[in-house]
Write a structure and sequence with these properties.
58% helix; YdbL; mainly alpha; single chain
């Protein structure tokens, strides 16, 4: 009887250890490639309407959705379908990630909407009304400096940023041929957000409030 119970106990412990092993498997995240891909996306999709060159067309910004797919500086001034063809043979993970993300309608839509908000957000960052969190989101620091409608705009901005971060997480799993499970997405989502935030901190202007990875707020 005792021998049988011992066998059951050993079997149960082995099963538990096996389950834990599955849960704790680390998912590969190409941090450097993701960082460069984010930079490329910002360069080709994040446009400030206030800085628009006279005569230059920026389709979709007025309506909130791009009518024409963007062009990547990584491959020169070529249509997106040509970019996709070249990306299939590209050795660079960053190039492939940038093309993959630029081909997602939800990502181009998010960037078009972020471009529309950019002038006002720049003003609010400059005044100290808002800061950049360590997840790359916009955080209110001085509500008294906000105008009517600003809080709703900030919420919409954060939602757009979450779309970009979530899409990067999915794209990295696809690029690295890893199965898209809730556990895998959960692991790469945090890394995707941290990399997005790092890029945003580097792009922040002097005087803007930014939150470091340890949670401390500082002025750049």
């Amino acid at each position: 009887m005792k021998g049988r119970m011992m066998k059951w106990l050993i079997t149960g412990v082995c099963g538990l250890l096996a389950a834990c092993a599955i849960i704790t498997v680390n998912v590969y995240f190409p941090e450097k490639a993701a960082k460069e891909a984010y930079k490329s996306l910002d360069d080709m999709l994040l446009k400030n309407p206030a800085e628009k060159v006279p005569g230059e067309k920026q389709p979709g910004l007025e309506q909130g959705q791009p009518e024409v797919k963007p062009q990547s500086r990584l491959f020169g001034p070529q249509p997106l379908f040509s970019m996709v063809t070249e990306a299939q043979a590209a050795e660079s993970e960053a190039d492939t990630l940038a093309v993959e993300l630029a081909s997602m309608p939800e990502v181009t839509k998010a960037y078009a909407e972020m471009s529309q908000r950019l002038p006002r957000l720049t003003e609010l960052f400059g005044s100290g009304a808002i800061g950049l969190s360590n997840q790359g989101l916009v955080s209110v620091r001085d509500k008294a400096k906000l105008a009517a409608g600003d809080e709703g705009m900030i919420a919409a901005e954060n939602q757009s940023r979450k779309v970009v971060v979530g899409s990067m997480a999915k794209a990295t799993l696809k690029l690295t041929k890893q199965k898209e499970t809730p556990e895998a997405l959960g692991q790469v989502m945090g890394k995707s957000a941290a990399t997005f935030a790092e890029n945003r901190r580097e792009a922040a202007k002097p005087g803007w409030w930014i939150q470091l990875q340890n949670g401390r707020w500082v002025q750049k």
